[in-house]
Amino acid sequence: MNLIQRAPGMTRRHFMSHLAGASALAGPAWAFTNTLRANAAELKKNHKSCIMLWMGGGPPTIDMWDMKPGATTGGQFNPIATTGEAQINELMPKLAEQMKHLSVVRSMSTREADHTRGGYYMKTGYVPNPNIEHPSYGSVVAHEIGTKIDNLEIPPFVSIGGSGGGPGFLGMTYAPFQVSSNGRMRDLQMGVEDWQLADRMKLLSVLERRFVNERRGPAPEEHAKVLDSTLELMTSEQLVAFKVDQEPQAVRDRYGNNNLAKSCLLSRRLVEAGVPFVEVNFGGWDLHQNCFTSLEEKLPVLDHALSTLVEDLSERGMLDDTIVMCMGEFGRTPRINENAGRDHWARSWSILAGGGGLSAGRVIGETNADGTAVTSEPYSSEDLMATICQAMGISLQTVFTANNGRPMKIANSGKLIEGLIA
């Protein structure tokens, strides 16, 4: 199933082709000056932001946030103490130091253990429906918060290193803006002169307006909105937020030189500039075989990048207004299979979240001794989404109207995860 709803005739490559030459129009690379930081702070001060670290494939949370030492399901790693209530995997000692800022919800119990369906469900709060495409976290935040931020010229929903969740019936205006971990715009094409690009964009704008005036359905109007946003973006000084290479070398060294580290640094820059939702994609968690060998490689990368992001946000005074959440589409089986792997498991698993007014340093919920069942109140995707929306100041009474005319309540009427609300 395609998680990104596109209006007829609207393709992402079509949209991104409008950005051809954007870097040329943006002029030379700027330093992130004190003036720009002050402007960004003004944009940021009246709203909260969220950075979602999306662990596509389904991470084995039983080996990360809810370990079972001594159980036959426990795996080969040991838990270590942290600065919060949780014990976590020994391969994440740096993150252990930052757990005073983060909480673990160990009683997630969701109903979709298929990658596509589970990803859709966890990002929207709704199970897939052939008749309706539901909006994801980022699109909901862009719609509810991004439209209220005066003078924000860069997109309110940015996806780093992946496609991100789709806008569903909210339309392409709220689709994720995709960039690489270096801040480069995907599918960006270069090679045209400024004056050529300006002429082309003027002509395209005239054509777009003609189609809108001819009332040929919603696609031309959606396309025109995207074009207007593109033109605004191309000449905005706020584009500097994407230029990770303008960050001081010491800061870049602190984060590290791999894709996740760069993505986390870029996410901090974007939130600092006023972007209300950033999705960072860190996939490769479909560990049906050699689970523990893979974790020996992946967990140290996660440990360094995520701990640095949380520490940096805290030091800059940004963590109170920035939610950091870490999850995939489900967990993995407590049972270890014959290939030293773990399979898909949605019945009892964990997510990590903190900042932005959420509880800090807590463990919420519990599973039994071998991790096969939730033994406290179970929480769903709807509940998590409702909790995040509430923490960001989005009313849970919000009701959207889908394109088939049906009312759709935000977060699918999920209940709050009380222990996660500070």
Account of the 3D structure:
- InterPro entries: Alkaline_phosphatase_core_sf, DUF1501, TAT_signal.
- This is DUF1501 domain-containing protein.
- 33% of the residues lie in helices and 13% in strands.
- The chain has a single domain (34-185, 258-420), classed as Alkaline Phosphatase, subunit A (3-Layer(aba) Sandwich), CATH 3.40.720.10.
- It is of the alpha/beta class and 422 residues long.
- It is globular, with a radius of gyration of 21 Å.
- An eight-stranded mixed sheet has the order 6-5-7-1-8-11-4-12, with helices on both faces. Strands 2-3 form a two-stranded antiparallel ribbon.
Write the layout of secondary structure elements.
Elements: H1 12-17, H2 22-25, H3 34-44, E1 49-54, E2 79-81, E3 87-89, H4 93-98, E4 102-108, H5 115-124, H6 137-144, E5 157-160, E6 177-179, H7 194-213, H8 218-234, H9 249-255, H10 259-272, E7 277-281, H11 291-315, E8 322-327, E9 331-332, E10 344-345, E11 349-354, E12 363-364, H12 381-391, E13 399-401, E14 407-409
Parallel strand pairs: 1-7, 1-8, 4-12, 5-6, 5-7
Antiparallel strand pairs: 2-3, 4-11, 8-11, 9-10, 13-14
Helix pairs in contact: 7-8, 10-11
So, CATH architecture?
3-Layer(aba) Sandwich
Structural class: alpha/beta
Report the mean per-residue pLDDT as an integer.
86
Strand order of the biggest β-sheet: 6-5-7-1-8-11-4-12
The biggest beta sheet reads:
8 strands, mixed
**DSSP strand count:** 14
What is the quaternary state of this protein?
A: single chain
CATH class: Alpha Beta
Radius of gyration: 21 Å
Order of helices and strands: HHHEEEHEHHEEHHHHEHEEEEEHEE
Give the name of the CATH superfamily.
Alkaline Phosphatase, subunit A
- Overall number of structural domains: 1
Indicate the low-confidence ranges by residue numbers. 1-33, 187-192
The third-level CATH topology is Alkaline Phosphatase, subunit A
The termini sit apart by 37 Å
Rough shape?
A: globular
> How many DSSP helices?
12
Percentage of helical residues?
25-40%
Share in β-strands: 5-15%
Keywords: Signal
Signal peptide: 1-31
Pfam families: DUF1501
Organism: Adhaeretor mobilis
